[in-house]
Amino acid sequence: MLFKNITILDENLEVGENKFVATNGDRIEYIGDVKPSGDYGDEYDGKGKLLMSGFYNAHAHSPMALMRGYGENLALQDWLGTRIFPFEAKLTGNAVYWGTLLCMAESLSFGIVSTSDMYYFVDDMARAVADSGAKNNISRSIVNPAGEDFDSMESVKEMKAAVKALNGAADGRIIMDTSLHAEYTNDEKTARALAEYTKEAGLNMQVHVSETKTEHEECKGRHGGKTPVEFLADCGIFDTSTTAAHCVWIEGDDYDILKEKGVTVATNPVSNLKLASGIANSGEILKKGINLAIGTDSVASNNSLNFIEEIKTLALIGKIKAGDPTVITPVEALRAATRGGAVSQGRKDCGALKTGNKADLIVLDTAVPHMHPVHNMVNNVVYSASGSDIVLTMVDGKVLYKDGEYVTIDTEKAIFETEKATKGILSQL
Length: 429
What we know:
Distance between the termini: 49 Å
Shape: globular
Pfam family, one: Amidohydro_1
CATH topology of the largest domain: TIM Barrel
Mean pLDDT: 97
Number of strands: 17
Organism: Aminicella lysinilytica
Keywords: Hydrolase
Largest sheet: 9 strands, mixed
CATH superfamily of the largest domain: Metal-dependent hydrolases
Number of helices: 15
InterPro entries: Amidohydro-rel, Metal-dep_hydrolase_composite, Metal_Hydrolase, MTA/SAH_deaminase
GO molecular function, one term: hydrolase activity, acting on carbon-nitrogen (but not peptide) bonds
Helix content: 25-40%
Structural class: alpha/beta
Strand content: 15-25%
């Protein structure tokens, strides 16, 4: 495809006007001021539009789309115990497939090109992602508080089988990660065993870290004053490329450990606010040079995948946390949403509008009242834009969403099947 006469946010998130951008196959082949020679297929008129990297959702539980709005105004443990866990006990592969596919449709409409997911029924998740054309880092979450033998656990067997069968599937769009659910849901032997397997297999790790104050303080009580970051580091969890979700209550040396180990922090602003878990100190995370990415968490604890809303929320609450309106600049917020997330997923050639990178791109309609006047386009994208401004989403050079229409997903069927599966589960509760 050839985008012509379009405003862009380049690899440095600097604005370029009246540019030509050409994609060839799954790559960005040309960015320049003059129209390139050759046939690039469809031409897209960029007048009144902005072209930039798509968004990388660094922490989610996509099948939980089935539980959107199911548990509201509850504390986290009550929410989990009375709503989420009973519902999840009745899940089927069919329900997970449709819930994931619906989530991929919503993601594409909000400019999310790739997602990092923790869940189970990973075969069904992978099938939905492959069918959608999106990208995903899928991990089979491991939970073992009772300390069962690691290799005999069904979840571990499922994880290893999925890694063997699915890692690199869908032309590399699907990457299989591992996932220790959290310190508080596993014993030390399990954490060490999973860390060893992950390192030997050369995989990425996903883990929940210090999401709530209770989790954080109880870990210190269990492990002689060690924080979750210190405990997980000692177990080797961070000895491979790791994304640590939440990190709301990290403290002291935690920041230095995360920096030294090259861990990405995936902050989840809206979900953490909704569950009153707290506000991550994203300003300090950035100051320490830690890679920052953004996650939505599940739509059961967020209710939408509106990533532009997530970006704005990150910027605003970071200022409140620091008591300083100068922290978290618009460029830093956008970088977390794009390149920061791609780095967390190990997608080295993604997350930036750059020649040679994968063509994971989105177009925003800027010819709308709330995007004018334009003193600074980056400021407008972070503070003024709406998720509905996204009018095109491309993954690996293929347009998957354009002007409200989906190329790969029958949304009417996805909605119908998701509603049907949800009603079937509720009838059993």
